[in-house]
Design goal:
0% strand, mainly alpha, 2 domains, 165 residues, 79% helix
Length: 165
């Protein structure tokens, strides 16, 4: 039954129905309250809804429950970034990269660097994310990340006065 809610929530995320996704993960949490992945995923959905404080609590709870996955830390980093606590966001994005050095984790850290005004490191992370994405066979959810990253990277290059051909 828990996997039903998980699959349904993932479907809702794919349709940008974040409240429905959060509701599904809430149901999954009721059935399996010790699953950190449910808290992490609900936290991510809450971030999309702008419920940043609630998201932060869910992401912390996921890690407290022992969900020591890269995405738990990247979601926690996103929550801190949404609350403009960039130091904590960076710490958690670094931990995410340590655990799972994939394109998503580098992209999110790049966004934190950008928010901090560190365009050099943001560009480096976006470049690594592009490279890792191309080398690892980007999944559907990463297509959105690459579009966002491409826009962010172009914007940063424009600000620096550099152009790509």
């Amino acid at each position: 039954m828990v996997s039903h809610y998980d699959h349904l929530a993932i479907t809702f995320v794919g349709q940008d129905k974040y409240q429905e996704a959060a509701d599904c993960w809430s149901e999954a949490i009721k059935l399996d309250p010790l699953s950190g992945s449910h808290y992490s995923n609900r936290g991510r959905a809450l971030l999309f809804l702008g419920k940043n404080e609630e998201a932060l609590e869910d992401c912390k709870k996921a890690i407290e429950l022992g969900y020591n996955a890269g995405y738990a830390y990247v979601n926690l980093g996103r929550a801190y970034a949404a609350l403009q606590n960039y130091e904590e966001a960076l710490i958690n994005c670094n931990k995410a990269i340590e655990l799972k050095p994939d394109s998503l984790c580098y992209c999110e850290r790049g966004k934190v660097y950008e928010a901090m005004g560190d365009k050099e490191n943001a560009l480096k992370d976006f470049d690594v994310a592009f490279e890792k994405g191309e080398n690892n066979g980007i999944q559907a959810n990463s297509n959105y990340i690459n579009k966002t990253m491409s826009h962010d990277r172009k914007s940063l290059l424009d600000q620096k006065g550099e152009r790509e051909d």
